[in-house]
């Protein structure tokens, strides 16, 4: 299969900073991603798993944070992320009605690897994100099963497809087909070089709002299309942020909030019915589960170093959203509901993505 054509392959260069080698979240060393895609007529859904590092993450937790831009969502595990500032499981993405099976399977996955959980130590905080794929997927069928979640967790790697895959199989973006998208940025600082990686599960927006580098591509497409349908933005977006920048939980929270700048540059107005939720972690410092005898040292950058991180996350979020859109394939799903692919439409109508 030839490589997927991403937004840069259309001549669109987002931002000023250099990308990582893959231009994906897995440019952050140690981060891997696994996916299971379920696509068969009425079933258009799946699972995406983000593994933050290759070690036992319950024993070696990571500094983490979450932020809610608009809270129309059903995520799991973010309360403890906010309170304790640490991540102790992989992160799973799926459809709204599959958060239960995802959480239950992730708990089992963690119990098998940590026999002390629930016996000699506390329980575990599974982190699950979701979006509603009911337009294309028969979400009531709850087609995601434990074996799909396990497969996503156990087959993670640094290489992965975007668009109509994994949790993104049935998702929409700007009234067209959306799904999984990713991007990364390199941050050069006086004390080192660091990476910011972003993964999105895009399921939001209406076509007429879509912007690409300030160009109203969505309005051009809407005017060119022969068919018409009522546009409603009742979707959501999950934004997963990984970095190796040494930061405190407070600094990380400041960084992930800035993902909204990239989201807005694609045209999102963050409507009432759209849930925008960000989960972020840093791999720079591992926090032991068991209390050490000595004081812990947690390195962190100076506040004045954060501006480049703010720029990096905005650029990576913007590009990740656009990658989720341009890599997606057209889908006919539940009850014949259909969403076309952005790449097919711009070719059909001869619409350029550059000025």
Provide a brief overview of the structure.
The protein has 355 residues and is α+β, with helices and mostly antiparallel strands. It is built from 8 helices and 14 strands.
Keywords:
single chain; alpha+beta; four-stranded mixed β-sheet; 8 helices
Beginning-to-end CA distance, first to last residue: 31 Å
Number of strands: 14
Judged by helices, strands and strand pairing, the structural class is: alpha+beta
Can you summarize the main beta sheet? 6 strands, mixed
Order of helices and strands: EEEHEEHEHEEEEHEHHEHEEH
Biggest sheet strand order reads: 4-3-12-11-10-9
Describe this structure in words.
The protein has 355 residues and is of the alpha+beta class. The chain contains eight helices and 14 strands. The chain has helices at 78-84, 99-113, 146-154, 217-224, 249-257, 259-265, 306-326, 342-349, and strands at residues 32-40, 43-51, 60-70, 86-87, 91-95, 127-131, 172-173, 176-177, 180-189, 192-203, 236-243, 275-288, 331-332, 338-339. The strands form four sheets. It has a six-stranded mixed sheet with strand order 4-3-12-11-10-9. Strands 1-2-5-6 form a four-stranded mixed sheet, covered by helices on one side. β7 and β8 form a beta hairpin. α2 crosses α3 and α5 (249-257) packs across α7. The mean pLDDT is 95.
């Amino acid at each position: 299969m030839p490589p997927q054509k991403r937004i840069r392959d259309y001549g669109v260069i987002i931002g000023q900073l250099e990308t990582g080698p893959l231009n994906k979240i897995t440019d952050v060393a140690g981060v891997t991603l696994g996916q299971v895609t379920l696509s068969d007529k009425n079933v258009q859904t799946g699972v995406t798993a983000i593994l933050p590092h290759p070690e036992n993450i319950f024993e070696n937790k990571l500094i983490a944070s979450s932020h809610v831009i608009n809270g129309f969502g059903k995520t799991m595990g973010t309360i403890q992320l906010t309170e304790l500032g640490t991540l102790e499981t992989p992160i799973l993405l799926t459809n709204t009605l599959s958060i239960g099976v995802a959480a239950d399977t992730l708990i089992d996955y963690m119990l098998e690897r940590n026999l002390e959980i629930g016996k000699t130590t506390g329980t575990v905080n599974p982190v699950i994100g979701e979006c509603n794929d009911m337009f294309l997927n028969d979400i009531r069928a709850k087609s995601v099963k434990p074996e799909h979640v396990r497969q996503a967790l156990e087959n993670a790697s640094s290489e992965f497809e975007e668009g109509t895959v994994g949790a993104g199989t049935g998702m929409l973006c700007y009234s067209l087909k959306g799904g999984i998208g990713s991007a990364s940025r390199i941050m050069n600082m006086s004390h080192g070089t660091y990476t910011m990686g972003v993964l999105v599960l895009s399921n939001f927006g209406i076509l007429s709002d879509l912007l690409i580098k300030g160009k109203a591509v969505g309005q051009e497409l809407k005017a060119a299309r022969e068919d018409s349908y009522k546009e409603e933005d009742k979707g959501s977006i999950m934004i997963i942020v990984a970095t190796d920048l040494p930061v405190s939980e407070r600094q990380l929270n400041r960084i992930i909030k800035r993902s909204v700048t990239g989201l807005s540059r694609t045209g999102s107005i963050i409507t009432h019915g759209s849930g925008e939720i960000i989960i972020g972690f840093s791999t720079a410092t591992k926090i032991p589960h068991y209390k050490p005898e000595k004081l812990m040292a947690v390195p962190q950058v100076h506040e004045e170093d954060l501006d480049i991180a703010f720029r990096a996350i905005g650029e990576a979020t913007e590009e990740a959203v656009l990658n989720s859109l341009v890599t997606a394939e057209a889908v006919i799903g539940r009850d014949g509901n259909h969403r076309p692919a952005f790449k097919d439409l711009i070719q059909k109508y001869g619409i350029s993505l550059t000025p």
